[in-house]
Specification:
The protein is α+β, with helices and mostly antiparallel strands and 297 residues long. It folds into 2 domains: 105 residues, Serine Threonine Protein Phosphatase 5, Tetratricopeptide repeat (Alpha Horseshoe); 147 residues, Immunoglobulin-like. It has 7 helices and 11 strands. A hairpin with a 5-residue loop joins strand 10 and strand 11. Helix 3 runs parallel beside helix 5 and helix 6 packs across helix 7. 22% of the residues are buried. The N terminus and C terminus are likely disordered.
């Protein structure tokens, strides 16, 4: 008994030589996010949901998780909140999961049907909220002398669209579609307008232009379209010339050399057959915009 008391009265040193102490030792002993996630899964399997939830939150705070691990954290948080009857918290967890993995699917062999049903409803709701909606009206009638423009409206609540593009070509041409980007209206961010360049050269007659519009993501994925390559939209342009003076020399070439198009009499016919007449006028000085432009609204 005396020996035991003596041993208890003279404890050994608290730390070995060179061993870190205080906050430094605490940081070294802190578990990584991956370790905390593993511990949370064990607690979850043991039905210790409050403790598991605390571990999951701690794992997020550590900040060293991979993307896949973050998805796992929010998945288990959603499961726990559903078990606890906190559906709003479960929905918020699943929404965060879908931000990291929009196409995530729960394993039906490892997940309760109740969880799968709830998750799929959240996923469908999230997809609908982030859907890009594109609206485009066919060409209409315009005042004489007014260019025609192609206009579209886009609702992109999820911010997924990178650009809105018009693809166009003369019908019957054995060429690929050319493209031009549309620009947003500063006064209305949902409204976009684009110009289709004059593509007829010195030809006269009635031509059909086929086109489609695509909302494109940064990775090139099409999010929404009006028309498509296999079923493009169309409009007609009838070009007539009363007098066409010889084009002046131009160093720029291309459309710059065709500004004199406006000196001729031109009729632009929309899809409904309503014509717009651009009256003949004296040749102006070369415009800064680069030349004759025919556009559709």
């Amino acid at each position: 008994m005396l020996l035991l008391l003596g041993a208890a009265s003279f404890p050994g040193p608290a730390h070995g030589a060179g061993e870190p102490v205080g906050p430094v030792r605490m940081r070294l002993a802190q578990a990584s996010g991956s370790e905390l996630l593993s511990q949370a899964k064990i607690l979850y399997d043991d039905l210790q949901y409050d403790q598991a939830l605390a571990k999951l939150k701690a794992a997020l705070k550590v900040g060293d998780l991979s993307r896949a691990e973050i998805v796992e954290v929010y998945k288990y948080m959603g499961f726990i909140y559903l078990i606890q009857g906190k559906e709003k918290y479960a929905e918020a967890s699943f929404k965060l999961l879908l931000k990291y993995d929009p196409d995530h699917q729960l394993n039906p062999l490892m997940t309760a049907p109740k969880f799968i049903d709830f998750f799929n409803k959240v996923k469908a709701k999230q997809a609908a909220a982030s859907k890009v909606v594109l609206r485009h009206q066919p060409p209409g009638r315009f005042a004489p002398g007014q260019p025609l423009s192609l206009t579209a409206y886009v609702v992109d609540r999820g911010g997924r669209m990178d650009r809105l593009v018009i693809y166009y070509r003369k019908k019957g041409a054995q060429t690929a579609f050319s493209s031009v980007e549309m620009a947003p209206d500063p006064a209305d961010p949902t409204r976009y307008e684009g110009l289709i360049p004059f593509v007829f050269g010195d030809q006269v007659g009635t031509f059909t232009i086929e086109y489609y519009i695509a909302a494109v993501a940064a990775d090139g994925q099409w999010l929404a379209t009006a028309g498509d390559p296999k079923a493009p939209l169309e409009f007609q342009v009838t070009v007539t010339e009363r007098s066409r003076p010889p084009p002046p020399p131009s160093e720029g070439g291309g459309l710059l050399s065709q500004w004199w198009f406006w000196a001729g009499a031109v009729v632009l016919v929309g899809a409904a057959g309503a014509g717009v007449y651009l009256a003949a006028q004296p040749p102006p000085t070369a415009p800064d915009t680069g030349g004759a432009i025919v556009v559709i609204r």
